[in-house]
Structures are given as C-alpha cells and as structure tokens.
Amino acid sequence: MVQHEVTIHQGTLRGSTGTDLRGDTFLKFQGIPYAKPPLGDLRFKTPVPPENGLAFSMPPKKGAFVTNETFSKSSSGGLSFFFDYPKLKQFWLPEDEKDLRPVMFWIHGGVFILQHGGEELHSPDFLITEDVVVVTINYRLGLLGFISSDDTSLDIPGSAGLKDQVMALKWVQEKIDKFGGDPNDVTVFGQSAGAVSVHLMVLSPLAKGLFHKAIAQSGSAINPWVQARKGVKRVAEVMGLEGADDKTVFDAVTKKSKEEILGLQEIMDDVFMFLIKYIGLVIETNSKEPSMTEEPINIMKSGNFSQVQFLTGCTSLEGATLDLVVKSIDFNLILY
Question: Pfam families under this entry (predicted)?
C-alpha cells in the first residue's frame, strides 16, 4: 500500500490511499490526535492541545476510531481527513492559496452516546468526488464527554464532547492548508445529534470564526432531548453514593477504567432512559470557557451567534441506520 508522510509541528502524519466511487484514488490520514488524551486528571475536563510528537496517522482498518462494535458507547480522540490524490507518483500539495479546496467537516450523530467517525459508518467515497477535503472526527461520548458538576473546584463544567469538536475545528484552522484544504472555506455538517452539534457550534462563542457555513441534517439545538439534567446525581445513585457530594462521586468515577465507566453507563441507560436526560448539553454559568452560557432559544432570539450561511432540514433515509442499531443494542437507546 502506498503511504505518504507529512511533517507538522506536532510530528509526522502518515497517510495512505483509497478509491472513491468513480474508481479514482484519494489520499487519507486517519486517527490524528487533535488534543491530549483525556486520561487521568484530564478525564471529563475541557480538552487541551496535543503535545509535540503526538501526531501520527493510524492505518485504515475497522476500529481505528473506537475500541468495540460499530455502534459504540466508547469514544477515542482523533480526526480523519480525505482528499483527491491527482498524481499517483508524487504527493501533491497546493502551490498557492488559489488551489486550496473547500473543507467539509462532518460531525456524527448518536444521541451523544453512540457511533463514531470511522469509515465503516461515514465513508468519504461519494463526497470526495466533489473536489473537497472531507474531515470526520471523534469526540468524547456518554459519561466521558457530557457529565458535569456545579462544584467549580472540580473544573468539570460539562459539554466536554462539544469542546472536543471545537478543538478539532481549531486544528483544522491551523493545519488543513498543509493538506490542500482552505481554512477560510470550512463547512460544518452533521446528522441527528451531529446536526444538533452543528447548530450548537453556530450558537457557541467558542466556535466563532472557526467555520463559514453550516448544514444541520435532522437535528436542532432546541430539540427537547439535547440538554442534560442531574447527571452526577444519576451516577451517584447507580454507584450507591446517593447523597454524597460531587467530589466524592467524581473521585470514585475517576478511579474506574474506561470499560467500567461504560458499564456504569449501560446501567444508567436501562434505569434512567425515560427520566430526565443525564447526557447532553449543559448551560455553563461558572466556566472559564463556556460552550453555552444561555438557553439556545434565547441566543437565537438575541442574534448573538455566528452569522454564517445555515442550511437545515431532514434526511430522507435516516431510518436506514436502524438496521445496524437493532442488531447491536437495546432498541430503547435509539428513541432519541
């Protein structure tokens, strides 16, 4: 397999080739860290930029973005991007800005609990034929990405998964031109919870200036399931720590492995699915860098959001994913 390497300040990225629907070759880089791994003291917290030496590209294979099944309750850091490869014998880069291509930045759906950004679900084979650079991302899901606390001493204000998306957009702004993408022509688009994320990026002060167009497919920031309530209290109940303060609960959760946290989430899915949602957006009133400081509907009314071209609607075949879902998870988990 032909491979190509590009060196940026983080280190070296290794790419490989794929074939689009027309039979043309395109170049792809996968599994690129856009933030430090959210482990140890960084678990549940706002992402921080990656260190030098953390830039690499995973080989294209199933599971490059998550550690288990196709519809996963896991998440792992990394983004992927794909673009045409016009010269088979020589790695091509644009000679000047006029040769840069529009960037399509995809955010996957899944209720902020399921799915991933890998090729198994979101292949670029069709879109890549339109002379664009396609970017897909992973972001923290479930408890790992959306648990929060009002205790400011813990520095866990919530919406870490959404802040991962912002961090990935920053990476694109800084580096996508090295791969033929135009940082001044970035379109964020997504479906279901990904569409919600797109709308939230439009409304969030953190994402201003990081993209220029937005497409929300079957999702909105004002959907009733978007916001989370009492997440840490739900965790405490399941762990037998009801009545404990947030620090005690988070100390106990932080000591658990990722697999144990996912198991805890499985229990919460069964017990609390039809109660107030525990995973999703929180309005941050005491955060240093809040993703959202007001109710989305109030921000929309105020007009104080990114004034970008915005296209929204419903996808015609959204139910096609259900064939995969019902084979792997409890049907109740797809109600949202």
Answer: COesterase
How many domains does the chain contain in total?
1
> Checking DSSP bridges between strand 3-8 and strand 11-19, what pairing results, if any?
antiparallel
Place of tokens 């970035």: 186
Q: What is the percent of the chain with per-residue pLDDT over 90, rounded to a whole number?
A: 35
| Count of all residues that appear for the chain in the document | 336
> In this predicted structure, what is the pLDDT of residue 321?
66
| Mean pLDDT of all residues belonging to the chain | 80
The structure tokens listed for 310 are 């915005």
| Residues 261-282, mean pLDDT to the nearest whole number | 70
Q: Domain of 118: which CATH number?
A: 3.40.50.1820
| Domain encompassing residue 164 | 3-334
Largest CA distance in the chain: 65
Q: 148 is written with which tokens?
A: 């929060």
pLDDT tens per residue across span 155-176? 999 999 999 999 999 999 999 9
Q: Within 10 A of 82 (CB to CB), how many other CB atoms are there?
A: 26
Report d(CA 336, CA 333) in Å as an integer: 7
